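Note to self: user wants both folds in one dump. Writing first protein now.
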Amino acid sequence: MTFKAASWLTALAIALITAIPVAVVLLSLLHPDQAVWDHLWQYVLPELLVNTFWLVLGVGLGVSLLGVSLAWLTAACDYPGRRFFSWALLLPLALPAYVTAFVWLGLFDFTGTFTTFLRNHWGIAQVPQVRSRAGVILVMTLALYPYVYLTARAAFQGQGRRLMEAAQSLGQGRMRAFFSVALPMARPGIMAGLMLALMETLADFGTVAVFNYNTFTTAIYKSWFSLFSLPAAGQLASFLAFFVFVAVLLEQQLRARRSYAASAKSASSSPRIGLRGIPAGLAVFWSSLIFLIAFALPFWQILDWSASVFETDFDARYIEFAWRSLLLAGLGALLVAALALALGYAQRLARTTAMNVTARLATIGYALPGAVLAVGIYIPVAWLDNQLIDTFALDGQVLGGTLLVMLLAYCARFLAVSHGPIESGLGRIGRSIDEAALSLGVTGAKRLWRVHLPMLRVPLLTALALTFVDIMKELPITLMTRPFGWDTLAVRVFEMTSEGEWERAALPAAAIAIVGLLPVVYLIRKTDAHA
């Protein structure tokens, strides 16, 4: 078998890792359990549909407002502190949304630190209820707006003073010029970031669980672990997968229209709009407010709570939590990066439509919620376990409840994270290098090992770092597929927040947040080149 044929087979096998759980979930729609669906339609789906609708609508409006306004200020305007805010406003990406959620409840719930202070010292008993739909929307907006901020800022690069002056020369004021010229030109980039934020909203489990706000992801978890009904979990997962695929199709359409935005070349030469006086003060106030409530306040609070409980709560269990988290993240990152490298190299060797479709199938798992993939992985594994038990008269499960199930789910979920930088790195290696290696007799696997891998060192390290941190933060897959007793830092956060133990949840949350700064620093270094 030639190296090219082996690469093709490897790519197909990798695609199956994602395609099988997705297919299992979607095929459950073809074999509906009438009793399950009657129960879901009567008692579950109406609430889930209403809650999901308002959550998606509210978060969509919120991240658009924050992301677009902050992106315009830091990309097209010049005001005191702009260089600091241009990267500092990305830092909320380091905090998992469920960490921000329990910090807000610990501070602003009825028994929270801040509300208790207001009652005891100022006599203020009536404060807005944070444990509400509006509270969930606010927290998720603060956690997810950087997706829109990143793409919108890239789209606004170059739309500085010259564009606005051209619009004003035609009789438009600055505000009208923004809405009639700058905003429409940046719309494809804005919408691409918005769709990413909305897909993360549909996939979220930890935040809505902390707020006890029922959505599809929490219903899937309850169906599996509270009602012990894998069929009900599968039906709900298929319903959610349908909405996610619609969002994926919309995102693809919007990505195809990105040509409206100004080019990076014009960005570097276009002067920014200078803000002075009241406009500059408002820009500083708005940027500072979002930075403080989205990152500085929750990050400081989890560090403060961690310090207060460290002596009494830290014990050998946390060493085990951290070790398991690091082990899973390390093994998962290595496996996912290796699969991404194999897939990317197969694309390089076979530049065909069939290979591109195969790569797309292999990486589509990132668009699916972890709860959906957990169900999609567990159903075939449970079936295979039953076959092995019946065939060999075994006493218990062979595959279910093992690390293998978790690692397979991680591969399906995060392959796209590693594939992106590796594919980009391979694209920067010219074909002339391959031809030079061929002239020296270096071909096949030897060429990959001796020529391409040394040139892919930075993309590989990037893929490993991004995947490592994503697995560290991942909650639903770990929670739903982990072996018995295999708690991690993320699971510890979930258990403590479920019991309202905010301070005890801060210690593992602080470790996750500090590790989460790694990919954010990488993003900051990339965006600084365009600042």
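First done. Writing the second protein, which came from a different request thread.
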Amino acid sequence: MVNKKFQVWLPLLLSIVMVIGMFLGYQLKSEGSKDFFQSDKPTSLQEALQIIKMKYVDAVNIDSLQHLAIEQIMSDLDPHSVYLPPAELKQANEDLQGKYAGIGIEFTMYNDTVQVVYAIPGSPGDKAGVQPGDIVLKANDSTLSGKKLTTDDIRKIVRGQKDSKVNLLLLRNGNEQTITVTRGNIPVPSVDVSFMMNATTAYLKINKFSETTYEEFMYAMENLKKQGMQNLILDLRHNGGGLLEESVDVADEFLGGDKLIVYTEGANSKKREYKAKRPGILESGKVVVLVDELTASASEVLCGALQDWCRATIIGRRTFGKGLVMEQFPLRDGAAIRLTTARYYTPVGRFIQRSYDKGKKVYMDELWNRYSNGSLLAADSDKVVRGKAFLTVCKDTVYEGEGIIPNIFVPLDTTIYSSTLNKLFASSTFNKIAFTYYFNHKAAIDKSTSINDFLKTVDVAPLYQSLLNTGEAPKNITEHIANRIKLQLKAQIAKYHWGNAGYYQTLTQDDQYIEDAMKVIEK
């Protein structure tokens, strides 16, 4: 009998509990229940801003002052916690999302003239008929030619909301024509290029870890497998990191069982372990990872896991040394903060973060100091040991702090990575010479069966001489520098035709990193 009465009243009791729960939830969110979480008393910061607003001699923008206050607070925490105002947040999110809304063309500036050099295949610009060589005179009501515009200025003009339209006034073969392009989502690849170096060894370059990295990586790896890949050269040079989870997923493809990849922990974050959880696409065969002083964060997670498990040989120079886990938190005004919430540790327990006890400036200047004091030129001086020692699975000694120290050191070639040459390669003159050649020889280049076929037949000696005649090339050129300039000309021409794949595959023809990697694989 008691049981039956309980069954009758049970629905009513549940309803009452739900109503009470909803009421309490509403109260907790309401203004009147702030005392559950915080005091009604304003903070000193709020008081100070209010006094400034009411008493300061001139009118002030309180929002700007609040932003400055947040920026200062974030900078005092650690070098990587940062405040992102609304204007910067959009670009920052696009980098991690792996896409942006635009028309999908690459351009260059020649004497205040915007010229299309590449239309991404299948992009809105390509579908609408934009072609390499087109000069963009106007975008909607914005005149682009004859103005001192930066590349960022032009990007802001041609990008916009998805499905919005932009009318481009183009000059092609001396004739003006208008093309309407409907903006769409343009992928920003994180895998720059992948190709076979020989019958069994592949090369793959990742430039960051975004939301699409693992998907791109697997697509490339599956194609390489079909072509006979048994060994891999994984290029993480200049990869500043990104999303931890994407890096973990990539590491999983090289490690078997339930091996630990990384673990994170912080004062307000419980220890969390990330382990291998699936059969990997390359759990056997040789792996070489290329790194440099700009390899950071999520890239170092991948390097640390493969080094600790002795799954890869690390070649290059000591990495950046960032062992902090970042999370992004939105603010009411459309801004956000990226806050360090935990530290990450490699499988053997290494914390590879460089010290920032002397302040942000000293921390950020450390990289420049490595350039200026010659530590990027000699292996011994690049091995800074300040933390305790750990043993990897194969009994190699690794150290805590100061980033990932490679197994094989590659010194910086200051002759080809000089500021003078970098300035030359980025100049409008250099790009104009390369693009003019490409535009005039496009029909012949179209007949090339591959990038290697193109490299065998292209002759850039006349272009090199034209460059010397401009007076912009450095004086007293050695044969080594001359060969580098010629190779860069070939790479730029290949980029106009094949995109990043052409550019990077060309540059691997003369790369000390690649030579050392091939020796490891062939050993």
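Dump finished. Worth passing along: Residues 1-37 have pLDDT under 50 and may be disordered.
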